[in-house]
What we know:
2 domains; elongated
Amino acid sequence: MAFAYDALPMETRENQRGALGALHHFGHRAGLAAPAGSVLLAVAAVLSCFLFVPPANGQNVNVGTNIPGMPRGPGVSQTPPAPSAPSKQEEPALLLALATLDKETRMMGEGPAIWDALSAQAKVPVSTLKQQRSTTKWNYGDLLVGNSLAIGSGNSFKQIVTLRAGANGWSQLARKLRIDPALIAARATAVTASLKQTKTRGIQGSRRP
Length: 209
């Protein structure tokens, strides 16, 4: 494809003349014969039509800079970077253990068995757990995790409540405190197992004559 020379903008024509002049000087210094020099100038003229493309819609687009691995000129769209992989937030095992515990406690309803099982795993008296629940409005699983992190990290329960407000999930906070979320998931699973055993014993006891 060729462009009419007079239709090219002044800047483009100056670029072409500069390129042709440089090639003419090179041919003269190299001692090229007239035919060879003419061929060289003709090739340069054709290439200049592609390297110095007239602006499109008022934008200064330089196709000559469209080289793989190098930045593109202004006005040329670039492929956006691929989105980064989402960061790992919650441990699946901990999520499952807490969801299972929450389901079990909802089925049983509030009672001594839940508080006793929770106290055994959280290493906190039942009276303290009830006070914490009244203050924070957390469910049983959150109380278990909060107290486990407090004891494991040496922080107070109140400090854990503050840290939890600024964390993106229990797993993130546990890792920040250098506590394996899987250990807390195991405690939640143990509470659920204890509640199921209590429920089973109650059913069996009610069937006795």
